[in-house]
Amino acid sequence: MKLNRIDLNLLVYLDALLRERNVTQAANQLNLSQPAMSNGLRRLRELFDDPLLVRTSEGMTPTERALELEPMVREVLTNIDRAVQPRSAFKPREADRVFRIMASDYAESTLLPAVLGQLRSLAPGLTLDIMTPSDVSFLDVERGRVDMVINRFDSMPQSFHQIHLWNDSFTCVLSPENPVLKEFTLDNYLKANHVWVSKTGMGVGVGMDPDDVQRLGWVDAALNKIGKKRQIRVFTRHYQAAMTMAEQNDLIVTLPTRAAQLKCNNPRVVLRDPPLEIPPLELKMAWSPLLQHNPANKWLRKLIADAARALDGQLPTL
Known about the structure:
- The structure is a single chain.
- This protein is of the alpha/beta class.
- It has helices at residues 8-20, 23-29, 34-48, 64-84, 105-110, 112-122, 138-142, 186-191, 213-216, 218-225, 239-245, 257-260, 295-312, and strands at 53-56, 59-62, 98-103, 127-131, 148-151, 161-168, 170-174, 193-197, 231-236, 251-256, 270-272, 281-287.
- It has a 5-stranded mixed beta sheet with strand order 4-3-5-12-6. Strands 9-8-10-7-11 form a 5-stranded mixed beta sheet. A two-stranded antiparallel ribbon has the order 1-2.
- Strand 1 (53-56) and strand 2 (59-62) form a beta hairpin.
- The two termini are 39 Å apart.
- The relative contact order is 0.15.
C-alpha cells in the first residue's frame, strides 16, 4: 500500500464507523449523508482488502482486521489533531465558549464553586454546562462531546487521561434529636436506620440491592470487612437530598466529609465521626485523548486542578 493512495478522510470515516458500529450514526457524527458514508466504507474495504464491518444479528460487527486497525487509526488521528492545533496559547479573557463538565453533585458543590470564582475573574466570557453522571456515557467522553468528567470511578477506559484531585474521609450527618447520639457506638449505629447515597462513575444507574455489598460502596464494604451490616432505608444518588433527609430524627447519613461540612452551620443537623474506619474515597478528573492537547481544555484542566490543590493542599500531577 502506498501512502499516496490514502485519503486522510477515509481514516476519519473508519474511526467513526468503528466507534458507532453503524453507517447511519457514523454519517450523522461527521455531518455526512448516509450514501457518502457507505461510499467511504466501500473505499475503505478496497484500501485494506477486508470487509472491516460485517452485518450480523447484533448489527455491524468489526472484523479481526478492523479491531487490529482501530487503535492504530485512533493514534494516527490523535497525533494529526495534535499537530494541527494552533500553537498560540488559549486566551481565556477573550474566549467566548461553553465548557461541558460532567460532575456528581458532590463535586459540583465542593469543588466547582471555587472553579467558578476563578472563571469569573480570569475568563468572564466562558460558560459552564454542568451535566450529571446520568447525562453522560463513557462513549460521550471518548468522542470529546464532554470536556471532562469529575467523580469517583470504580473503573475507566484505559484510553482516558485522568488525574487525582483529592482524597476525602467520611462523616455522619444526623439530627440533634436522634436518640443514637446518646451513645454513638458501632452497635447503636448498626441498629439505626440509614440513608445510602452515592453516584459513582457515569451513565444511567439501576436499582440498588441492600444485599449487594460489592455495589454498595465504601461504607458498606468497610462494614462487611468486619462482618457487620447496616439497615439502609433510603437509597439516593443526590448528596444534597441525603443531607436534607438527615434532619429527620431517625436517620443517619454517612457521606464524604467535604459534602457534610456544607451543613456545619445548619442547626437542624450535627456532624459526627463514624464509629468505624472507612477507607478514603478518591475524586478524579478524566478526559478524552482527543482533547489531551486542546489548548482550551488544557487550560481549564489546570484551573480545576489548581482549585482542588488550593482546597486540599495537594498538587495533582498534570
